[in-house]
Amino acid sequence: MARRKSAAKKQERLHREIVGPTPEQHRRANYELSDIVDIEPGKVAVRIGKAYRREPYFEELARREATGIGADDLRCLRFYRNRFEAAQRSPVRSVLNRDAGGKGDGPMLAALISSSDHRFLEHGIGAAVHTLRAIALEDKSYAQVAMDRWGSREQHWIVKGEEKVKIVPKSGKHPGIVRDEFLQALARLTERTLPYIRTG
Description:
By secondary structure, the protein is an alpha+beta fold. The chain folds into two domains: 1-55, no CATH class; 56-198, no CATH class. It is built from ten helices and four strands. A hairpin with a 7-residue loop joins strand 1 (31-38) and strand 2. The model is unreliable at 98-115 (pLDDT under 50).
């Protein structure tokens, strides 16, 4: 009994010591406290700690009504995002990356990255792949992608006698165009990814 209480207190202390997202980060995205797991081929996964993880923006999109993201689409987005994150943590990539102090050359690194799983899943998506990456991998909203592409403007309004200013897309139609591109790219991603999830 005493051991359990001691373990519980230790766990509580660790939770307090973990640095969480700032209030500004919380306003922009959802975060969850999750385990950090070290996985080596042929060995048992070992939990080495905890950290706050930003929830992908597409999870928020999928919770909204009439977003056009179905259950299979969501599973494929998660698989795609996980493959991308795994490629970013690749030990081989770290060794070859000159920017991180590695000794490899640029062309070799480019070839390695282009052959990674998430790039393979993008095959056949076409020009809309840039929109897919921005939303599924970079967590940008439709409005943010629209402003990156076509520019922005200031929107002014009065609240209780106080003027408010917000930066919005140049046209109200632009986020809708981005949404359509994303759903088109997602349909192709799901078509290509789903067989790997079902048979893997």
